[in-house]
Structures are given as C-alpha cells and as structure tokens.
TrEMBL record:
Residues 6-231 form the ABC transporter domain. It comes from the Bacteria. It comes from Rugosimonospora africana. One of its GO terms (molecular function) is ATP binding. Pfam families: ABC_tran. This is ABC transporter ATP-binding protein. PANTHER family: ABC TRANSPORTER ATP-BINDING PROTEIN ALBC-RELATED. Keywords: ATP-binding, Nucleotide-binding, Transport. PROSITE patterns: ABC_TRANSPORTER_2 (PS50893). The keyword Cytoplasm does not apply.
Length: 296
C-alpha cells in the first residue's frame, strides 16, 4: 500500500457555535505509528471518531484506507479501534468477548486472540468487571488486533493506567505492529509514551493541526537558539521562530530551519520531542490562526 492511510482536506466539526475541529488537512503515509498529541479538548477524539465512522464531519472530506469511514462492512473490518475508556462489558467473561469478536468480525484471528490472552496470564473465564484497568485495556487491545486491521486507531488508551501497565500495553502494541505491519494512530497527551513508539507526529491544539511530519525529520529541523537579546526578525530569512523568551540580556528561541544554522553569535542545540510539542502548543495560545506546518 502506498496511498495514505488517512487523508483529510478541510475537515471540520461543529456543535452549534462550538468548534471541535477546524480546517484539518492531513495526509498520513502508510506503515507509520502516528502520535496524535495535544492538550485535553484539542479535538483529538473528534478527529479519531470521524476517522472510524462514529461521527460525521460538518465540512471537508476524509478518506481512510482509500474509502469513506465505516462505509460498508468491508471497510469496518479493516479498522480496529480502542476508545479512551477502553470499553469492555463488565458482566461478560473474556471468552464471551472473544466469541463476540469472532461473530462480528469477518477477519477475526482466534489463534491470535487466544495467544494474547494466554501470554497476558488472563483466565478466559474471568469476567471483565473483575479485571484491573491495565487488564481491561489489554482485553480491548486484543479485541482490536484480532480483527487483523490494516489501521489501528487508539484514543488515549493508557491515560488512566499506572506506568507499569502503560509500558506493558505499549509493548504489546509494538509487538503486534512488528508481527503484522499495521498502521497505527495513537492519541495521547503523554509525550514520553509517544516518544517510545511513534515515528510520525501530529500536534493538534485548539481544534487545529499545528504541525505534522516524521519524528526524525521534525527533530532534525528544529533547534533551540540562545544568545544575546535580539529581535527574531533579524534571523536568517529561512529560519521560522516557533517560540521565544527574552530577558534583559538574553534571547532563547525555538526555531525551524530546513538547513543547518551557522551563526557564531548563537548557541545552537537540538531539541527533544517534548520541547517541540510544547513550543507548538505555546505558539497556538499566542497566535490564534497559525498556518499548518507539514513536514514529510
């Protein structure tokens, strides 16, 4: 597959006067583990629910795996989804969940489901209501991956888990990706988790996409500049200032530049993924309608 797993053009969602998603334009390449990051209320869940067919957009277009989300049973079968609350049925056993999955999904892989449950040390006769939060999350992930999806969509599935449960969930996720080659979109506000597993990043703030691109390239083209206080307008024309702070004597800037910065008056450092995310989130609070930066 070479076509984008998700393509959106001018995608928007409004509830009366409230805008949940605004003018979202994206093209996510296949074979990536995509981190969708932003503060609470940024529009992450709205975007993902539109992508899996749970919501209809107000404006714009979206294609997932080359088709309209949830357009037919075949399209539904190609997408796995784990919602934020990692939904399970408290009164049903693990075995009941797997039987339900087999009955409702034409591509269901019972062997994969059974092997995952056994590897997790779970008893099929256990009721979901008796499981820990981490175990329920793993059951929800098992239900999603046993569909054998081409795209797996995860909406903050580890937000309420302790660090050990988060690590085990993400380890299970990456094992599935390595074995089956599915594309993944993982929403989170925990940058440290995304840094461990994602190779593509989307920053969504205040209902708008602020930047999207491959993590390696994003980090290679963003810098922290420190030096004597100066007007950011005096920097080279190819340098875009994302965030700046100033004292009486010193300026510290987070910038983007497609070419190396060679300025002996500045200390130039690479930044972390968390630095990058926070810079674009800060930019969003000071500039209400910044242009989307898209880096492939």
């Amino acid at each position: 597959m070479t076509d984008p797993v998700l393509r959106a053009d001018g995608l928007s969602k409004r509830y009366g006067r409230r805008t949940a998603l605004s003018d979202c334009t994206l093209s996510i390449p296949p074979g990536r583990v995509v981190g969708l990051v932003g503060p609470n209320g940024a529009g992450k869940t709205t975007l993902l629910q539109i992508a899996v067919g749970m919501l209809a957009q107000t404006a714009g277009t979206i294609e997932v795996l080359g088709g309209r989300p949830a357009a037919n049973p075949a399209q539904l079968a190609r997408v796995g989804f784990v919602a934020q609350e990692t939904p399970t049925y408290a009164g049903l056993t693990i075995a009941d969940h797997l039987r339900f999955g087999a009955h409702t999904n034409p591509r269901w892989d019972q062997r994969l489901a059974d092997e995952r449950i056994a590897a997790l040390g779970l008893e099929p006769a256990q009721k979901a209501g008796k499981l820990s939060g981490g175990q329920r999350a793993q059951l929800a992930l098992t239900m999603a991956v046993a569909k054998r999806p081409d795209l797996l969509v995860l909406d903050e599935p580890v937000a309420s888990l302790d660090p050990l449960a988060r690590r085990e969930f993400l380890r299970s996720l990456m094992a599935f990706v390595a074995d089956h080659g599915a594309s993944v979109i993982l929403s989170s506000h925990l940058v440290s988790d995304l840094e461990r597993v994602c190779d593509y990043l989307i920053v969504l703030v205040a209902s708008r996409v602020r930047i999207a691109g491959e993590v390696e390239h994003l980090l290679a083209t963003h810098y922290r500049l420190t030096g004597a206080r100066r007007d950011p307008a005096d920097l080279h024309p190819g340098v875009t200032v994302i965030e700046g702070s100033h004292t009486d004597r010193q300026s510290t800037l987070i910038v983007r530049s497609d070419t190396p910065i060679d300025d002996p008056s500045l200390a130039v450092e690479q930044i972390t993924l968390e630095d990058l995310v926070l810079a674009y989130m800060t930019q969003a609070t000071t500039s209400p309608r910044p242009a989307l930066e898209s880096i492939r």
